[in-house]
Amino acid sequence: MHEIILCKLGEVVLKGLNRRSFEMKLMSNLRRRTAKFGKFKIYSRQSTIYVEPVGEVDFESAYAACKQVFGIIAVARAVPCEKTKEAILETAKEYLGETMRHTKSFKVESKRADKSFPMGSIQLSQWVGGYLHEAFPHVKVDVHTPELTVYVEVREDAAYVHGPAEPAAGGLPIGMGGHAVSLLSGGIDSPVSSFMIAKRGVQLEMLHFASPPYTSELAREKVLQLARELTPWCGRLTVHIVPFTEIQEAIRRDCDEEYFTLIMRRFMMRIADKLARELACRAVVTGESLGQVASQTLQALAVSDDAITMPVLRPLIGMDKEEIVKISRYVGTFDTSILPYEDCCTVFTPRHPKTRPEVEEVREIESVLDVEGLCQQALARREMVKIKPL
Ligand code: ATP
Ligand code: MG
């Protein structure tokens, strides 16, 4: 049996006049993500995209990849068969036999796009349902809340019997929401914030600050690994690694210790802003969550925002750690995130950080530094690492 993959469109269907461009983008994303698993014919009909193997393919991997493409809300496998009621019944018995054996109730739902097919869709559902019930008498027919819905579709070229649908990534196709710079540390939060903004259709450029020799080669590898683990969702990624040691040393040398983290975060924001402009991005993304640490109080966030004119997106702002961890496990970054390597934020942390800073005060303390020069030097020495997708 030659299975095909059906991808059901999510929010894309709400896009009135733009809908076609969203669908085209989604299909090109699907083509790119499935290409390494073989050749596929990909096309859309109504609210479904069909992914059909051409010749030998790694079907399981392609199916798993489709589930992680933003813009698709559910996926199902299906098998094509001849357009006769007998062939449809035989295919359903053979293809769904194993599932039927473990199901308590079912119904058949048919769609007839080919109006020349001699039966109406209700008639066809009743006919197939009746015979399936005979073949699997322990499975009750339940048209209201069945455990399994057997979908039958009669189209121009063939009829299709679907397996059960599974939830997929949801969101909007990457590329439709423009570009943003996402600050990626080695922690649990920033891979999740990156995932959440990518889910809304945004293509990300990753920015990481490294402070060798205070942060190790292993910490750097960890961040690149996190980026790699994001690629099945976010597509191609580049990590821009900016050296941060000199900036941190300058702050430590010339500023009050209790302001260290606040001023450091202002530098991060400024560099993110500059990089974003250079790469034609329209926002900066961080994994901050209100009140989680001293630098994430309302006052501290205001101090960070004061250093940047680009919009800052903080998708985790209202979430508890537990909720963030749950998404992190779903995304697949959690196990890497908890590896114990130093981040630049954990070197030189003040013993008593200011939790209620005033913007004016911080500006004043920071004014002894050559802010612009330090930012430009750091940016000029950045390294770009193209991540090989998983
Ligand atoms: P995370 O779990 O993402 O590391 P966190 O709770 O540890 O976050 P902070 O260390 O204060 O919080 O960092 C807040 C946000 O700042 C991070 O989510 C990330 O977006 C950004 N950030 C922190 N450190 C770095 C870094 N070394 N490089 C790039 N961005 C960073
Ligand atoms: Mg951190």
Structure in words:
The structure is a single chain. With 390 residues, the chain is α/β, with parallel strands linked by helices. The protein folds into 2 domains: 4-167, VC0802-like, CATH 3.30.2130; 179-387, HUPs (Rossmann fold), CATH 3.40.50.620. 40% of the residues lie in helices and 22% in strands. It has 13 helices and 15 strands. It has helices spanning 19-34, 59-66, 85-101, 121-135, 189-199, 217-234, 245-254, 260-278, 298-305, 321-331, 334-337, 359-366, 371-380, and strands at 4-9, 39-45, 48-54, 72-81, 105-112, 140-141, 148-154, 159-162, 166-170, 179-183, 203-210, 237-243, 284-285, 312-313, 383-387. Helix 5 links the parallel strand 10 and strand 11 (203-210). Helix 3 crosses helix 4 and helix 8 (260-278) packs across helix 9 (298-305). It binds adenosine-5'-triphosphate (ATP) and magnesium ion. The site of adenosine-5'-triphosphate (ATP) has 19 residues, from helix 5 and strand 11.
Query: Could you tell me the mean pLDDT?
Result: 95
Structural class: alpha/beta
Strand residue content: 15-25%
Shape: elongated
The percent range for helix content is: 25-40%
CATH architecture of the largest domain: 3-Layer(aba) Sandwich
Please write the CATH class name of the largest domain.
Alpha Beta
Q: Helix count?
A: 13
Topology record:
Blueprint: E1 4-9, H1 19-34, E2 39-45, E3 48-54, H2 59-66, E4 72-81, H3 85-101, E5 105-112, H4 121-135, E6 140-141, E7 148-154, E8 159-162, E9 166-170, E10 179-183, H5 189-199, E11 203-210, H6 217-234, E12 237-243, H7 245-254, H8 260-278, E13 284-285, H9 298-305, E14 312-313, H10 321-331, H11 334-337, H12 359-366, H13 371-380, E15 383-387
Helix pairs in contact: 3-4, 5-6, 5-10, 7-8, 8-9, 8-13
